[in-house]
Amino acid sequence: MKKQATLYRMVTDKHICPFGLKSLDLLKREGFTVDDNHLKTREQTDEFKKQHDVKTTPQTFIDNQRVGGYDDLLVLFKKKKKADGDKTTYAPIIATFSVTLLLAVALRWSMIGDTAILPIFELFIALSMSVLAIFKLRDLESFTNQFITYDILGMRWIRYAYIYPFIEAIAGIGMVGKLALVIVCPLSLFIGTIGAISVIKAVYIDKRDIKCACVGGNSNVPLGLISLTENLMMILMGIWMLRGIVW
Fold first, then answer.
1. What is the mean predicted confidence (pLDDT) over 157-161?
2. Phi then psi dihedrals of residue 226, to 5 deg
3. Cα 79 to Cα 71: distance, rounded to the nearest angstrom
4. Helix residue ranges per DSSP H, 61-157
5. What is the pTM of this model?
6. Which phi and psi (to 5°) does residue 34 adopt?
7. How many other β-carbons are positioned within 10 Å of the β-carbon of residue 247?
8. Which are the contacts of 201, defined by CB distance < 8 A and separation ≥ 6?
9. How large a percentage of the chain has pLDDT more than 90?
10. Which secondary structure element, helix H or strand E, spans residue 229, and what is its range?
């Protein structure tokens, strides 16, 4: 006998709930026959929530027992543990660095036809800086709110927090194209040094447990070794590329 589930999800002319679609798909993949009920108006949705004393939809019922929303289904089917909204993760950094490294290799191969390590490393750092700048600029206000809680210059001069992503973007783009390195390299050195000192003070001296704004505001990336490494790479890159101009 096939397993049965009843799903209530919001489907209106103007809005189709993505978590309702995901719940439907997950139930089917788990072998359930689904009685798929559409809540077609806001009024109908509000009435359903009031009737079942729930705050959100979709809602799934199995054996006449309410399971809950999509996250609850994931927990039920052991796809993930109970959500912890304050849990830290390195996933955004891992994704960013993995893609920019592969992109650096692909660009070097397409342009030169080799995989020389040093040029690829240069491209990797420059591309990473550019992508991280995009994350920050996507929601500048949110970034500044998180950044000024630990950056030693941002705390004292708030405008620096608003300028920082633009400096990072200019430095990254300049390094990719090897443009105006006499300006770009000192910029990378400056923000990298301030950033490294800020991380060392906040994490290793003050022992603060806070989140990093490296991938934009409201992220759950912990401030620590990865953030310090990012700043040290900017310092190293600035010195490395500047040496070709000075020497």
1. 95
2. -65, -45
3. 9
4. 70-76, 91-111, 117-138, 140-147, 152-156
5. 0.78
6. -110, 125
7. 5
8. 152
9. 74
10. helix 225-246
